[in-house]
Amino acid sequence: MRSQPLQLTLESAAGHRPLALTIDRLIVAGWVGKNQEAVRKHIEELGELGVPAPSRTPTYMNLSAALLTTDEAMDVVGPESSGEVECVVFGSAGRLYVGVGSDHTDRGFEKYDIPASKQMCTKPVAPAVWDLEEVRDHLDRITLRSWMTAGGKRRLYQEGLLGSNIGVIDLLDGVPADDALGLASFSLFCGTFPAIGGIEIGEMFEFEMEDPVLGRKIGHRYRIRCLPQYL
Hints:
The structure is a single chain. This protein is mainly beta and about 230 residues long. Helices cover about 15% and strands about 40% of the residues. It contains five helices and 17 strands. It has helices at about 35-45, 105-110, 115-120, 130-135, 170-175; strands at about 5-10, 15-20, 25-30, 60-65, 70, 75, 80, 85-90, 95-100, 105, 125, 130, 145-150, 155-160, 185-190, 205-210, 215-225. The strands form four sheets. It has an eight-stranded mixed beta sheet with strand order 2-1-12-9-8-15-3-4. Strand 16 and strand 17 (about 215-225) form a beta hairpin.
Protein backbone atom coordinates (compact mmCIF):
# COMPACT_ATOMS: atom_id res chain seq x y z
CA MET A 1 0.00 0.00 0.00
CA ARG A 2 1.13 3.53 -0.73
CA SER A 3 1.11 5.68 2.42
CA GLN A 4 1.54 9.07 0.71
CA PRO A 5 -0.65 10.35 -2.15
CA LEU A 6 0.88 10.56 -5.59
CA GLN A 7 0.82 14.27 -6.45
CA LEU A 8 -0.21 14.70 -10.08
CA THR A 9 -1.76 17.31 -12.36
CA LEU A 10 -4.93 16.53 -14.30
CA GLU A 11 -4.75 18.12 -17.75
CA SER A 12 -8.23 18.21 -19.27
CA ALA A 13 -10.44 20.21 -21.59
CA ALA A 14 -11.57 22.18 -18.54
CA GLY A 15 -7.99 23.19 -17.68
CA HIS A 16 -5.33 21.97 -15.26
CA ARG A 17 -5.86 21.10 -11.61
CA PRO A 18 -3.95 19.24 -8.88
CA LEU A 19 -4.82 15.57 -8.48
CA ALA A 20 -3.69 13.61 -5.43
CA LEU A 21 -4.11 9.84 -5.78
CA THR A 22 -3.53 7.34 -2.99
CA ILE A 23 -2.83 4.13 -4.90
CA ASP A 24 -3.26 0.81 -3.10
CA ARG A 25 -2.40 -1.58 -5.94
CA LEU A 26 0.23 -1.52 -8.69
CA ILE A 27 -0.19 -3.94 -11.59
CA VAL A 28 2.28 -4.41 -14.43
CA ALA A 29 1.01 -6.15 -17.57
CA GLY A 30 3.45 -7.88 -19.88
CA TRP A 31 3.61 -9.38 -23.37
CA VAL A 32 0.62 -7.35 -24.55
CA GLY A 33 1.23 -7.03 -28.30
CA LYS A 34 -1.56 -7.81 -30.75
CA ASN A 35 1.10 -8.78 -33.28
CA GLN A 36 2.30 -12.17 -32.13
CA GLU A 37 5.50 -11.79 -34.14
CA ALA A 38 6.33 -8.64 -32.16
CA VAL A 39 5.52 -10.45 -28.92
CA ARG A 40 7.84 -13.27 -29.96
CA LYS A 41 10.58 -10.72 -30.75
CA HIS A 42 10.27 -9.13 -27.31
CA ILE A 43 10.35 -12.54 -25.63
CA GLU A 44 13.44 -13.41 -27.66
CA GLU A 45 15.29 -10.18 -26.81
CA LEU A 46 14.65 -10.87 -23.14
CA GLY A 47 15.61 -14.50 -23.70
CA GLU A 48 19.01 -13.32 -24.90
CA LEU A 49 19.47 -11.96 -21.39
CA GLY A 50 18.45 -15.29 -19.89
CA VAL A 51 14.85 -14.31 -19.06
CA PRO A 52 12.49 -17.31 -19.26
CA ALA A 53 9.46 -17.18 -21.54
CA PRO A 54 6.07 -16.63 -19.85
CA SER A 55 3.54 -19.43 -19.42
CA ARG A 56 0.70 -17.12 -20.49
CA THR A 57 0.18 -13.84 -22.33
CA PRO A 58 -0.66 -11.24 -21.33
CA THR A 59 0.83 -11.52 -17.87
CA TYR A 60 -0.21 -9.51 -14.80
CA MET A 61 2.27 -8.86 -11.99
CA ASN A 62 1.33 -7.27 -8.67
CA LEU A 63 4.00 -5.01 -7.15
CA SER A 64 4.17 -2.60 -4.23
CA ALA A 65 2.32 0.65 -4.97
CA ALA A 66 5.00 2.47 -2.96
CA LEU A 67 7.27 2.13 -6.03
CA LEU A 68 5.30 4.80 -7.92
CA THR A 69 7.16 8.11 -8.15
CA THR A 70 7.46 11.32 -10.13
CA ASP A 71 11.09 11.82 -9.07
CA GLU A 72 13.68 12.74 -11.69
CA ALA A 73 16.39 10.46 -10.28
CA MET A 74 16.59 6.78 -9.45
CA ASP A 75 19.09 4.77 -7.41
CA VAL A 76 19.61 1.13 -8.37
CA VAL A 77 21.78 -1.54 -6.77
CA GLY A 78 22.75 -3.45 -9.91
CA PRO A 79 24.54 -2.23 -13.05
CA GLU A 80 22.07 -3.86 -15.48
CA SER A 81 18.76 -2.03 -15.34
CA SER A 82 16.71 -0.17 -17.92
CA GLY A 83 13.34 1.47 -18.47
CA GLU A 84 10.39 0.70 -20.73
CA VAL A 85 7.79 3.27 -21.76
CA GLU A 86 4.21 2.23 -20.96
CA CYS A 87 0.75 3.73 -20.87
CA VAL A 88 -0.46 3.81 -17.25
CA VAL A 89 -4.09 3.74 -16.16
CA PHE A 90 -4.92 5.12 -12.70
CA GLY A 91 -8.20 4.31 -11.01
CA SER A 92 -9.47 6.08 -7.89
CA ALA A 93 -12.88 6.94 -6.45
CA GLY A 94 -14.61 5.48 -9.50
CA ARG A 95 -12.70 7.66 -11.98
CA LEU A 96 -10.10 6.56 -14.54
CA TYR A 97 -7.08 8.56 -15.66
CA VAL A 98 -4.43 7.78 -18.25
CA GLY A 99 -0.76 8.68 -18.05
CA VAL A 100 2.65 7.41 -19.06
CA GLY A 101 5.43 5.77 -17.07
CA SER A 102 8.50 3.58 -17.15
CA ASP A 103 8.55 -0.03 -15.98
CA HIS A 104 12.21 0.16 -14.93
CA THR A 105 13.58 -3.34 -14.37
CA ASP A 106 16.76 -4.93 -13.04
CA ARG A 107 17.84 -6.90 -16.13
CA GLY A 108 20.53 -8.80 -14.26
CA PHE A 109 18.01 -10.27 -11.82
CA GLU A 110 15.21 -10.68 -14.37
CA LYS A 111 16.59 -14.03 -15.50
CA TYR A 112 15.96 -15.42 -12.00
CA ASP A 113 12.62 -13.86 -11.02
CA ILE A 114 10.69 -11.44 -13.25
CA PRO A 115 8.32 -9.91 -10.64
CA ALA A 116 11.20 -9.51 -8.17
CA SER A 117 13.35 -7.80 -10.81
CA LYS A 118 10.58 -5.25 -11.30
CA GLN A 119 9.98 -4.82 -7.58
CA MET A 120 13.68 -3.88 -7.21
CA CYS A 121 13.22 -0.58 -9.11
CA THR A 122 10.96 2.41 -8.62
CA LYS A 123 8.32 3.06 -11.26
CA PRO A 124 8.59 6.65 -12.55
CA VAL A 125 5.44 8.21 -13.99
CA ALA A 126 4.84 11.55 -15.67
CA PRO A 127 3.48 14.14 -13.24
CA ALA A 128 0.54 14.91 -15.58
CA VAL A 129 -2.40 12.67 -16.54
CA TRP A 130 -5.50 12.91 -18.75
CA ASP A 131 -9.09 11.99 -18.07
CA LEU A 132 -9.57 8.61 -19.74
CA GLU A 133 -12.99 9.65 -21.05
CA GLU A 134 -11.37 12.37 -23.16
CA VAL A 135 -9.23 9.84 -25.05
CA ARG A 136 -11.33 6.67 -24.87
CA ASP A 137 -12.55 6.97 -28.49
CA HIS A 138 -9.03 7.31 -29.94
CA LEU A 139 -6.76 5.39 -27.55
CA ASP A 140 -5.41 3.31 -30.44
CA ARG A 141 -4.04 6.46 -32.12
CA ILE A 142 -1.96 7.54 -29.12
CA THR A 143 1.81 7.20 -29.58
CA LEU A 144 4.40 6.26 -26.95
CA ARG A 145 8.11 7.08 -27.31
CA SER A 146 11.22 6.75 -25.23
CA TRP A 147 14.82 7.89 -25.52
CA MET A 148 17.91 6.38 -23.93
CA THR A 149 21.07 8.30 -23.12
CA ALA A 150 24.03 5.94 -22.80
CA GLY A 151 27.63 7.07 -22.69
CA GLY A 152 26.43 10.62 -23.26
CA LYS A 153 24.69 9.72 -26.55
CA ARG A 154 20.91 10.14 -26.78
CA ARG A 155 18.86 8.05 -29.20
CA LEU A 156 15.28 7.05 -29.89
CA TYR A 157 14.80 3.82 -27.95
CA GLN A 158 11.13 2.87 -28.42
CA GLU A 159 8.18 4.09 -30.45
CA GLY A 160 4.75 2.64 -31.10
CA LEU A 161 1.00 3.13 -31.25
CA LEU A 162 -1.20 1.92 -28.42
CA GLY A 163 -3.28 0.31 -31.15
CA SER A 164 -0.51 -2.21 -31.82
CA ASN A 165 -1.00 -3.67 -28.34
CA ILE A 166 -3.99 -5.26 -26.64
CA GLY A 167 -6.43 -2.45 -25.88
CA VAL A 168 -6.05 -0.57 -22.61
CA ILE A 169 -9.68 -1.26 -21.65
CA ASP A 170 -9.32 -4.94 -22.59
CA LEU A 171 -6.23 -5.20 -20.41
CA LEU A 172 -8.08 -3.57 -17.54
CA ASP A 173 -11.03 -5.94 -17.98
CA GLY A 174 -8.59 -8.88 -17.99
CA VAL A 175 -7.02 -8.17 -14.59
CA PRO A 176 -7.46 -11.42 -12.61
CA ALA A 177 -10.25 -11.06 -10.07
CA ASP A 178 -9.69 -14.25 -8.07
CA ASP A 179 -7.83 -12.52 -5.23
CA ALA A 180 -8.64 -10.00 -2.51
CA LEU A 181 -6.65 -7.08 -3.97
CA GLY A 182 -9.52 -5.41 -5.81
CA LEU A 183 -9.48 -2.36 -8.06
CA ALA A 184 -10.76 0.37 -5.75
CA SER A 185 -7.53 2.36 -6.11
CA PHE A 186 -4.92 1.10 -8.57
CA SER A 187 -2.43 1.80 -11.32
CA LEU A 188 -2.01 -0.50 -14.31
CA PHE A 189 1.11 -0.40 -16.51
CA CYS A 190 -0.21 -1.49 -19.90
CA GLY A 191 2.85 -3.02 -21.57
CA THR A 192 5.57 -1.81 -23.88
CA PHE A 193 7.21 -2.20 -27.31
CA PRO A 194 10.47 -3.87 -28.40
CA ALA A 195 13.54 -1.69 -28.00
CA ILE A 196 14.91 -0.31 -31.27
CA GLY A 197 18.25 -2.05 -31.69
CA GLY A 198 17.80 -4.18 -28.58
CA ILE A 199 17.82 -3.57 -24.83
CA GLU A 200 20.45 -1.09 -23.67
CA ILE A 201 21.68 0.20 -20.32
CA GLY A 202 22.10 3.95 -19.90
CA GLU A 203 22.28 6.85 -17.50
CA MET A 204 19.07 8.67 -18.49
CA PHE A 205 15.66 7.56 -19.69
CA GLU A 206 13.02 9.86 -21.23
CA PHE A 207 9.48 8.98 -22.23
CA GLU A 208 6.37 10.65 -23.61
CA MET A 209 2.81 9.99 -24.71
CA GLU A 210 1.34 11.96 -27.62
CA ASP A 211 -2.32 12.44 -28.44
CA PRO A 212 -2.53 13.51 -32.12
CA VAL A 213 -6.28 14.07 -31.98
CA LEU A 214 -6.29 16.62 -29.14
CA GLY A 215 -2.79 17.84 -29.96
CA ARG A 216 -1.05 17.35 -26.61
CA LYS A 217 1.79 15.47 -24.98
CA ILE A 218 2.82 14.44 -21.49
CA GLY A 219 6.20 13.03 -20.52
CA HIS A 220 8.96 12.70 -17.99
CA ARG A 221 12.64 11.84 -17.65
CA TYR A 222 14.92 10.54 -14.94
CA ARG A 223 18.57 9.84 -14.29
CA ILE A 224 19.80 6.44 -13.13
CA ARG A 225 22.56 6.10 -10.55
CA CYS A 226 24.05 2.72 -9.72
CA LEU A 227 25.06 2.71 -6.06
CA PRO A 228 28.55 1.35 -5.28
CA GLN A 229 28.66 -1.84 -3.25
CA TYR A 230 31.42 -2.98 -0.84
CA LEU A 231 30.97 -6.69 -0.26
